[in-house]
Amino acid sequence: MQDISAYISENKDRFITELIELLKIPSISADPAYSKDVVKTAEEVKNSLVAAGCDTVEICETAGYPIVYAEKLIDPNLPTILVYGHYDVQPPDPIELWDSPPFEPVIKKTAIHPNGAIFARGACDDKGQMYMHVKAFEYMIKSNNLPCNVKFMIEGEEEVGSDNLGLFVAANREKLANDIILISDTSMIANDVPSISTGLRGLSYVEVEVTGPNKDLHSGVYGGAVANPINILAKMIASLQDDQNRITIPGFYDKVQDLSDVERTKMAEAPFTLDAYKKDLDIDAVYGEEGYTTNERNSIRPTLDVNGIWGGYIGEGAKTVLPSKAFAKISMRLVPNQDWEEITELFTKHFLSIAPKGVRVKVTPHHGGQGYVTPIDSVGYAAAEKAYEKTFNKKPLPQRGGGSIPIVALFEEELKSKTILMGFGLDSDVIHSPNEHFGIWNYLKGIETIPYFYMYFTEMSKS
Ligand code: BES
Ligand code: MN
Ligand code: MN
């Protein structure tokens, strides 16, 4: 029986080539112009699961993009792991800031990735991390080392809110029944500081529209006498945070679960260099809610951020205009036990209430989702910890993540199972940004670690 390291050494070039092929397909779920490519990616994922050795592999149609479902069931008395991932990617914009085209993957060395990293949209989020599971599974099949049952559910709408997956999960509880859900779609602290994500933030995403006069006006003829919707929108947004950078929406913090001092002290033990953080981002200071550290601000505290703001004239040169309308897209990251629908309502009510006379305001909710916290005293966490210890020679740290995977809370609700978040990417891999990449070392380390999780989880579930 060949061991995983030997299997990786022998097959790593093929593992890389296969991932590169997958990354060439622009599976941008947000843009209908790419719908054929999204569907084609689902086909490729399906083919890869067949080739790796799954028995049943299906393309499950939804009202949106298909879900790829596969299984290998070896014994009903053994535990079942459900692997979730997504094959869709974020739009590559702004495309001019990429050093190489987003869907023509290239391997380049960086200071953090001396063995090279694959640069492409989706390299880390989530094609690369999802594909680690396909290759780890391939190894377990080829070497006769699969210790338990496995189900794969790979979707194509994560980046647009997973609405159809939610319906699919609710309608297929039995089919998806499992003992643990395993996801690689988060990050770890550093290659020499392995960590396991123990939390995800929730999300409420809204769009606001402020309308002033019924048409664009000359800013000289009318300026000063009529409310300018852009000025008003800017004022309204600015008022959503106070001097301490706390969110001013009444009731916003009511349900926030505070961490105990013990938990905060434990969190502060994770290595973090503020200077390196600032240098990487070219900023002279960090900014955020008073009374909290940077790592607390970006994980255990809720936020409110404008993601986009527009209106009026944004073309070349200067045009004098008092616009009729102004818009913004606003996201709120939430923490346990904030409820995203309740927060969306609180936001809407408050935002409408602060609109001055002279403008009309409309708030349109987009998607949202609840946050999630993984218990660290579970068999799943212990098995993951042991797997990292085996391949990194270091005990991984539990780390609360700042991003969102809304379907995870829904998994718990519908399937009653916990999720283990084994992410192998780094925050500096810049997912969602130009020049997204995924370290080859990280990719292979993930493939190496996953089979140990299967092994320890199966062993530890017995006792
Ligand atoms: N993989 C990310 C989420 C993530 C990244 C969690 C890093 C923790 C650390 C996922 O693909 C994502 O981008 N989610 C969206 C939410 C979704 C509803 C569009 C997000 O967090 O913005
Ligand atoms: Mn993702
Ligand atoms: Mn993403």
Chart the SSEs and their pairings.
Elements (H helix, E strand, L loop, with lengths): L3 H20 L11 H18 L3 E5 L6 E6 L7 E7 L19 E3 L8 E3 L7 H16 L6 E7 L7 H9 L8 E4 L3 E2 L6 E6 L1 E10 L17 H10 L22 H8 L5 H8 L12 H4 L5 E9 L13 E10 L5 H14 L6 E10 L2 E2 L5 H14 L4 E4 L6 H9 L3 E3 L3 E2 L10 E3 H23 L1
Parallel strand pairs: 3-6, 3-7, 7-16, 8-17, 9-15
Antiparallel strand pairs: 1-2, 2-6, 4-5, 5-18, 9-14, 10-12, 10-13, 11-12
Helix pairs in contact: 1-3, 1-12, 2-3, 3-12, 4-11, 10-12
Mean pLDDT across the residues is 97
Helix amount = 25-40%
The count of β-strands is 18
What's the end-to-end separation, in Å? 25 Å
Gyration radius over CA: 23 Å
Strand content range: 15-25%
Shape: globular
- Helix and strand composition category: alpha/beta
Q: Bound compounds, please?
A: ligand BES, manganese (II) ion
Q: Give the helix tally.
A: 12
Parts with pLDDT < 50 across at least 5 consecutive residues: none
**Major pleated sheet:** 6 strands, mixed
